[in-house]
Design a protein that fits this description.
Elements: H1 5-10, H2 12-17, E1 26-31, E2 39-44, H3 49-56, E3 68-71, E4 77-80, E5 87-89, E6 99-101
Antiparallel strand pairs: 1-2, 3-4, 5-6
Length: 104
């Protein structure tokens, strides 16, 4: 299974070098809504939500405060404003799905 064209063209060793020690690889996210830069982005697993919103997404127009993010599309959940330091991780347990979690 491939995550993106960039991952497949750079090969397995490159992909495995991305992310964290326990959560390797990259993840593709769709940025939309009240941010400066929208679109699809591919980032290393473990990238903080705040980096997606502020560094890649360019922040919230008009300098407004971050209030929440809709994570997981229509079937997902809204994250409160204290989650900007959370990171996307894969679980050490084979029965657990990848998710957002507080930075360790």
């Amino acid at each position: 299974m491939r995550t993106s064209r960039r991952s497949s063209s750079n090969g397995g060793p490159w992909f495995a070098a991305q992310g964290t020690e326990k959560s390797r690889g990259t993840k593709v996210f769709a940025l939309a809504g009240a941010i400066q830069n929208s679109g699809l982005v591919e980032v290393p697993v473990g990238t903080p939500l705040g980096d997606l919103i502020y560094d890649i997404g360019g922040g919230i127009p008009g300098g407004k405060e971050f209030k929440a993010a809709q994570i997981g599309g229509p079937s997902g959940a809204a994250s409160p404003n204290n989650t900007s330091t959370w990171r996307w991780i894969t679980s050490a347990s084979p029965n657990s799905a990848p998710s957002w979690a507080p930075a360790a």
